[in-house]
Amino acid sequence: MHAKAHSSANGEYLSARNIYPARNLEVVNLLFNKLLADKPLGIAVPKALEKQWD
Q1: Could you read off the pLDDT of 5-54 as tens digits, one per residue?
Q2: What is the pTM of this model?
Q3: How far, in Å, CA of 54 to CA of 51, rounded?
């Protein structure tokens, strides 16, 4: 709940200054949820790289 309050306040602060971070948030979410996932882009990490990937 506390984090949601900050998120809302940040959104209000940024939008009052005509700053809309939606596109940047989409890119960051893609980066962390798809490219840096346990299986990047749905592809298993090769055994030789598994230790480094964690």
Answers
A1: 777 788 889 889 999 888 988 999 999 999 999 999 999 999 998 888 87
A2: 0.59
A3: 6
CB 41 within 8 A of CB 33: no
Spatial neighbors of 34 by CB under 8 A, at least 6 apart, are 40, 41
Residue among 46, 35, 36, 12 at smallest CA distance from 21: 12
Amino acid at 45: V
45 phi/psi in degrees, rounded to 5: -75, 135
> Helix or strand or coil: residue 37?
coil
Chain center to CA of 1: 20
Residue 4 in contact with residue 10, Cβ under 8 Å?
no
